[in-house]
Amino acid sequence: MLRSAPSPHQSTSLPAFRTARQLASVRAKLIPALLFISFFIFSCETPTHKIDLGDNAKEHAQTKNSSVTVSRTPIGNTGYSIELPSSHMIQAQPGADFQLFYFTPHDTVLHRGEAGMYIGAHPDVNPPKGDVSSKEMTGILLGKQVTWIEYEMEEYTQRETFVDMGNDQYIHVWCYANNLPELENLFKMVNTITY
């Protein structure tokens, strides 16, 4: 049997308001309750910390938030991890006797650089060719004293270091960018690598 649409005189599940005053009273109670519930739902996120992306990101992200969440992320199945911003991803390129990981931006217009990590017995120790100036700086990576070498070229600046992990295993870590704020952000990121 087909049901017909309810007539205007039949009772429905919606309450009938006799006066505009009753309707206004219900609205006055309902709106603050909905606002409170919305605030509660949207403020209950997983706690994360944020990293400022610097002036370069702020220039290009007028409609986006200039800070992103950062989370400790495993680097493949190596046992190493990195504090990776949500603006970046890890791309793995396994080799026969080495592992290679790139920390690349999702948005290559906003983030004009990249970082990476090589784990194996034969790291690439060839500096860039051409008109290059270089300088050294010391630091600590993976609990070991390291020397970072910065190569400044016309198109970009690169920093890299090598860590001797013993047993013929080396870790080569690098980052490069075409502007200093982006390079500093990548440098901070790769310095969070831990085992």
Strand content: 35-45%
Unreliable residue stretches: 1-15, 38-65
Shape: globular
Q: Order of strands across the widest beta sheet?
A: 4-5-6-10-9-8-7
User: What proportion of the residues is helical, as a percent range?
Assistant: 10-25%
N- and C-termini, Cα separation? 70 Å
Q: Which structural category do the helix and sheet elements fall into?
A: alpha+beta
Largest sheet features:
7 strands, antiparallel
Q: What's the β-strand tally?
A: 10
Average predicted local confidence, pLDDT: 76
Output the number of helix runs: 3
Q: What would you report as the Rg, rounded to the nearest angstrom?
A: 28 Å
Q: What are the secondary-structure elements, in order, as H or E?
A: HEHEEEEEEEEEH
Write up what this structure looks like.
By secondary structure, the chain is α+β, with helices and mostly antiparallel strands. The chain has helices spanning 20-43, 54-60, 180-190; strands at 49-52, 67-74, 81-85, 88-94, 98-105, 113-120, 133-141, 144-152, 157-166, 169-177. The strands form two sheets. The protein has a seven-stranded antiparallel beta sheet with strand order 4-5-6-10-9-8-7. It is globular. It starts with 19 loop residues before the first helix and ends in a 5-residue tail after the last helix.
